[in-house]
Amino acid sequence: MLSDLKHWVDECIALTAPSAVHWCDGSAGEYAGLVETMLKDGSLVSLDQSRHPGCYLHRSDPNDVARTEHLTFICTTDKDDAGPNNNWMSPAEAKAKVRPLFENAMRGRTMYVIPYLMGPAGSPFSKAGVEITDSAYVAANMHIMTRVGQIALDRMQETGEYVPGLHSLGDLSPERRFILHFPEEKLIWSVGSGYGGNALLGKKCFALRIASHMARQQSWMAEHMLIIGVEQPSGEETFIAAAFPSASGKTNLAMLVSTLADQGYRVRTVGDDIAWMFIDGNGQLRAINPEAGFFGVAPGTSLATNPVAMQTVDKNTIFTNVAMTADGNPWWEGIGSPPPEGMINWRGMVWDRTGTAAHPNSRFTAPARQCPSISPRWEDPAGVPISAIVFGSRRSSLIPLVYEAFNWQHGVFVGAGLGSETTAAATGAVGVVRRDPMAMLPFCGYNMGDYFRHWLDMGKRMKNPPRIFRVNWFLKDNSGKFLWPGYGENIRVFKWILSRLRGAGGAEETPLGFMPGPGDLDVSGLTFQQHALDQLFHVDRDGWQRAADGMEQFFQPFGERMPAEIWLEHRAFRSRLRHR
Ligand code: OXD
Ligand code: MN
Predict the structure, then answer these.
(1) What residue ranges line ligand 1, CB within 6 angstroms?
(2) Which of ligand 1's atoms lies nearest the C-alpha of 196?
(3) Closest to 494 (Cα-Cα) out of 274, 250, 310, 238
(4) Counting ligands in written order, which one lies closest to the CA of residue 363?
(5) Pair 267, 371: CB distance under 8 Å
(6) Rounded Cα gap, residues 466 and 454, in angstroms
(7) Average pLDDT of 442-448?
């Protein structure tokens, strides 16, 4: 296996012609060296080391600040295997088109060869990858986001398997930017971007797009989901996985500080972005977090909204595209303090108060192990047992605060019909509703019709499939104000979910699913007008018929690949809206 790796690396050297090659060992000394190199060449700025030890700021090229979905391709032999949900090129066409962009691309640069493991040490579910990159910034981020070095080489030896990924900054021009996935050979090529999801190949490219393809073949699931443990008064911990589109509060939810802590409800973090889930010998679904760090959205993160994240990013963190105060501290919109004089904006210029000081998709990369709410089980090699799956998204109207699907098949339909308002995490318009099934539209590495089939099949293989819920923290009233306080108060929704899992929680049957009836959701201590509560649980039948039209339009192009069960659920839903 390692000779195979050496062979691939040699090929990449011949193609890209780096001036030096560095094999990463994942050590602290190596990380310090990467930082030093970047401080010297100016690609990293040191922040106030007394206030933020080990923290640095990187400013990306202004054309390279978010995932670029229109330049992201799934390259399968048969176009139908990529499906209408993906951009497609044939593997031969893609390689012919993009190979020239790699030719001599690393001339004058150092090539970093990064063997990395996705998942905890010793877990049978963890998988190895190797990223080749000419970016020291990418190498340093991979140190935080994955487990780099011998641990990965050992895994490759054991399993004879790894996912190779070749990355080059190229010339950073969007005209010459491509993020290519070859699921049939489990290969990734990315050129022309240094931005997180495009360049840290372990994350979206491997752990979601390639892994989702592997998961279907091998009967497991790779999902865009956070994982939390919710402790209840008995002390028992229930693990929940939750899918939300990018920049919709996943990291906040994963680090929720419960306002019902005095009742014994608390949340612990297992992961904030990706869940790999497997069925164990007893038919129980279990999840691991394949990542070792958080690549979180900075704007809106404050001591009020996410104090745990604020503590997590106090040290050993790489900030990207945030603003910097005159005394060298990171700053972003929504940090909870007014912008001081003399601020440097995300582009490195004195901020004249036009536009935002931090980029709306500015990020922090921080080690998970230093997160105060990290679960003692976050690196459990056996994973954690998942009792509920939650689908959420950013919707200012229509979607009630919470409801529960009738059963697994109905829950798959609820996930398949998920729509969300777009955010700054990807380039393109912000705030437009688009269908984003299971929050996986940008990340499913194959035809989504087959993906829904895979979900349905997985449900049949489990003894007690997790119960499925839909939540929406983002409903607004007519004056544009949020109806639900969100953040730490979301624990109230989880309290109801836990009571449903125990068979104790009250609910009413509605055309959408089971919803808390009057008195079923604990809103004690919150000042709520009755009409606000009514709006949080309102079922707008006409609005939902229109949403069902939108789902139909989305499902139609999948043709024969769309499972009959999803259409059946769609018809049943329409009929419930008319009759019940
Ligand atoms: C992310 C994303 O970076 O979803 O996690 O875009
Ligand atoms: Mn994400």
Answers:
(1) 67, 196-197, 246, 273, 295, 425
(2) 3
(3) 238
(4) 1
(5) no
(6) 15
(7) 98
The mean predicted confidence, pLDDT, of the chain is 97
Say what the pLDDT of residue 170 is. Answer: 98
Tell me which of 431 and 158 has the higher pLDDT: 158
User: Amino acid letter at 444?
Assistant: C
Quote the Cα angle for 345-348-349, to 5°: 70
pLDDT at residue 432 in the model: 84
Distance 227 CA to ligand 1 centre (A): 15
Write phi, then psi, for 92 (nearest 5 degrees).
-65, -45
DSSP calls for 70-85: GGEEE--SSHHHH-TT
For residue 204, the 8-state DSSP code is: I
Q: How far is the CA of 247 from the centre of ligand 1 (A)?
A: 7
In sequence order, the 6+-apart residues with CB closer than 8 A to the CB of 12 are 111, 132, 166
Report the alpha-carbon distance of residue 323 to residue 307 in Å, rounded: 19
pTM, to two decimals: 0.97
- DSSP code string of 317-352: -EEES-EE-TTS-EE-TTSSSPPPTT-B-TTSSB--
Three-state DSSP state, 432: coil
pLDDT for residue 249 is more than 80: yes
Q: Which of 297, 213, 308 is nearest to 247 (CA)?
A: 297
* pLDDT tens digit sequence for 160-199: 999 999 999 999 999 999 999 999 999 999 999 999 999 9
Task: Determine the distance separating the centroid of ligand 2 and the alpha carbon of 262, expressed in angstroms.
Answer: 32
State the ligand closest to the CA atom of 242.
2
> Is the pLDDT at 554 greater than 80, yes or no?
yes
- Tell me which of 67, 195, 420 to substitute to probe ligand 1's pocket, judged by most ligand atoms within 8 Å of the beta carbon: 67
pLDDT of 84 reads: 98
Does the pLDDT at position 428 exceed 90?
no
Which tokens go with 278?
Answer: 């497997």
Cα–Cα distances (Å) from 292 to 131, 137, 141, in that order, read: 16, 17, 11
Distance 526 CA to ligand 1 centre (A): 32
% residues pLDDT > 70 (the chain): 100
Alpha carbon distance 236, 230 (integer Å): 8
Q: Which atom of ligand 1 is nearest to the CA of 297?
A: 3
* Spatial distance between the Cα atoms of 272 and 221, rounded to a whole number of angstroms: 16
The helix/strand/coil state of 117 is strand
Q: Name the residue with the closest Cα to ligand 1, atom 2.
A: 246
Q: Residue 424 — pLDDT band, cuts 50, 70, 90? A: confident
Nearest Cα neighbor of 268 from 245, 296, 291, 237 is: 237
Nearest to 168 by CA among 183, 189, 187, 185: 189
Task: Give the mutation target among 72, 204, 274, 427 for probing the ligand 1 site: most ligand atoms within 8 A of CB.
Answer: 204
Nearest-atom number in ligand 1 for the CA of 224 is: 4
pLDDT tens per residue across span 268-299: 999 999 999 999 999 999 999 999 999 999 99
pLDDT band at 1 (very low <50, low <70, confident <90, very high): low
Supply φ then ψ for residue 498, to 5 degrees.
-60, -40
Report the nearest atom of ligand 1 relative to the CA of 197. Answer: 3
First to last CA, the chain: 60
